[in-house]
């Protein structure tokens, strides 16, 4: 049984990304369609959708395209089943992955602080609106 393939429109709908964004991610080497139809349409698998969702989740954390590419390369190598890394290479990859995790954790904390400040501001505005009634 072959894996189900989706055209870019369905992938865009499922991921919440625009067609243009998906094409851009392909152009910069972050994702590639698993196949092309006879008519040349991009065809994506569930694994491609999952990869796009990982990219989408990196975006709010301000990872650059280069960092995204590096991080995806690291996770691809760690998950490789045909030639998995071993020994020093595996340890080096895990250390690099952990450094990205630490950056992501720190950026999440910054976003939490920004959200708290924004919510406090919105509450201040509500109080002022209520006081003016």
Structure description:
It is a single chain. By secondary structure, this protein is mainly α. It contains five helices and three strands. The protein has a three-stranded antiparallel beta sheet with strand order 1-3-2. Strand 2 (about 35) and strand 3 (about 40-45) form a beta hairpin. Helix 4 (about 65-80) packs across helix 5 (about 85-130). The longest helix has about 45 residues, at about 85-130. The chain is flat, with a radius of gyration of 20 Å.
What's the short version?
With about 130 residues, the chain is mostly helical.
Features:
single chain, 5 helices, about 70% helix, mainly alpha, three-stranded antiparallel β-sheet, flat, 3 strands, about 130 residues
Low-confidence stretches: none
Broad structural category = mainly alpha
Oligomeric state of the chains present here: single chain
Secondary-structure element sequence?
EHHEEHHH
Q: What is the distance, rounded to the nearest whole angstrom, between the alpha carbons of the first and last residues?
A: 66 Å
Spatial order of the strands forming the largest sheet: 1-3-2
Instruction: Give the strand tally.
Output: 3
Residue-averaged pLDDT? 93
Count of DSSP-assigned helices: 5
Measured as a percent range, the helix fraction is 55-70%
Proportion of strand residues: 5-15%
Sheet of most strands: 3 strands, antiparallel
Shape: flat
Radius of gyration: 20 Å
């Amino acid at each position: 049984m072959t894996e189900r393939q989706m055209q870019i429109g369905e992938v865009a709908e499922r991921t919440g990304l625009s067609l243009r964004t998906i094409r851009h991610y392909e152009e910069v080497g972050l994702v590639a369609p698993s196949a092309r139809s006879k008519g040349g349409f991009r065809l994506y698998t569930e694994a491609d959708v999952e990869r796009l969702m990982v990219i989408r989740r990196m975006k709010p954390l301000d990872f650059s395209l280069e960092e995204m590419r590096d991080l995806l390369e690291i996770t691809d190598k760690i998950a490789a089943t045909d030639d998995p890394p071993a020994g020093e290479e595996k340890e080096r990859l895990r250390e690099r992955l952990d450094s990205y995790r630490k950056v992501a954790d720190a950026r999440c904390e910054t976003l939490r602080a920004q959200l708290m400040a924004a919510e406090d501001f919105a509450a201040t505005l509500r109080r002022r609106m209520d006081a003016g009634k």
